Amino acid sequence: MDISLFQLFILCTTIAVVLGFGIRAARSVHSTKGFSVGGRSAGVPLVAGGIAGTCVGGGATVGTAQLAAVSGLSAWWFTIGSGVGLIIMGLFYARPLRRTALETIPQFLSQHFGLACGVFSSIISSIGILFSAVASCLPAIYIIAAIFGIPFFPATILLILAVAAYAFFGGMKSAGVGGILKMAVIWVTMAIAGIMASHSLFASPAFSAALPEGTFNLLHGDTAHILANFSSVVIGMLCTQSYIQAIFSASNPRTASVAAFTAALISLPVGLPCAMVGIYMHTAHPEITPILSLPVYLLTEQPPLLGGIAMGGIMLSLIGSIAGLSLGIGTMLSRDIFHRARVTLRARKIHKIASQPELQEIDILEIPTANHPWHLSELTVTRLIVLATIALSAFIALVNEGSQVLFWNYLSMALRSGGIFLPLSFAIFLPHTVSHRSATLSMALSTGAALAAVFLGAAGNPLFFGLAVSAICLLPCLLFRRGSGLASD
């Protein structure tokens, strides 16, 4: 992929400016709460920027263009699903979740269904979110390798360093600031690129004649498959820690709801110009590898300045998405597993001191920091988990180079939604209806069903296998409601 020195300079400058603002925002982050939820003081722009900056990543841009080169305009369904999911979140989920003043979805589930349910949901959500991060790592590695003319492995290392600079220091505050800036860049440049690609398609009779039948039909192809993928994205948006975490960072419930609507308006249209570019590149340059359709178009068929800025925006969309998703995993594993383990250890030590009079001179307040094997602060642990997640997702992408970007996105949505969506919805809208045992069993069996569907190659979207099993476990509780006495089991 040829790139001029001027374009490379503009690309790197665009990335550096946005990363610089994010690192600058990180100077005010000194605590775990400040890192994970921005101190709960974020307004609509920061919350919407954090959500849109995470969901508009590899799948919404490069992945949509890649799929459009093969399937046509139906590739737009991914960002349509993201927007619809965020609208539903703003209408029904954002306010009740923000009122809880928590930090993670597993914390919310633990309050309703017990500790075991919370820990299990933290693990399966992290696995699902990891696959979404892989989806953004795939095109990022390809683009870095193509631009700099280097092998995939050093390109992977460069990607890890860039994502770490984006999220490692500032967490949610850096993600929000970076999200606002990158979405401004992507909106303007992708709109121009989409208009120019559309004009090129329809202005040339040769291009128009070469388009396959049904190219611009949103339901072209396997309609059931398209709608299933759409549903998995909508439901996945409602169950993803990275997006809910931005909701938790809002200053109040109303801000959280308005920010979800704003993020929907930002993210939903992005896929259309990217799809048009993919369709054009498949028609005009069928020799181009589909995953590079959008980058090649921006660098070869756009003015150098615009192409350089646009490529910087694309790279930022990938970097920001990986960072936001990794932040969600880091927060869950730190708060819901590491923190709980520390609390348990502290309780055991306090009990030991209380039962042995000769130890009662020990200052109990020193126990959490001085007398346990995990002496690192929770903020440090969260940052290290985020860094480890970034590295793991990048190396999974490296091993699976050549796979479809949206495959990982849809797989991720299915796995993290099948077990979480129904218990989360019951907890919000019908509390005290589902028993602890049923909720935990539902998560375990539905996740197992979704995984089995994936690895056995079952026909149909794995999300619906998971949701079906989850419903079988939970609906009897609804049909035979036993009231708030369920909390006792």
From TrEMBL:
The keyword Transmembrane helix applies. GO terms for molecular function: transmembrane transporter activity. One of its GO terms (cellular component) is plasma membrane. It is found in: Membrane. It is a multi-pass membrane protein. The keyword Signal does not apply. Keywords: Membrane, Transmembrane, Transmembrane helix, Transport. The chain crosses the membrane at residues 6-26, 46-69, 75-93, 113-134, 140-168, 180-203, 223-244, 256-281, 305-333, 381-399, 405-430, 439-457, 463-480. PANTHER family: SODIUM-SOLUTE SYMPORTER-RELATED (PTHR48086:SF7), SODIUM/PROLINE SYMPORTER-RELATED (PTHR48086). Belongs to the sodium:solute symporter (SSF) (TC 2.A.21) family. This is Sodium:solute symporter family protein.
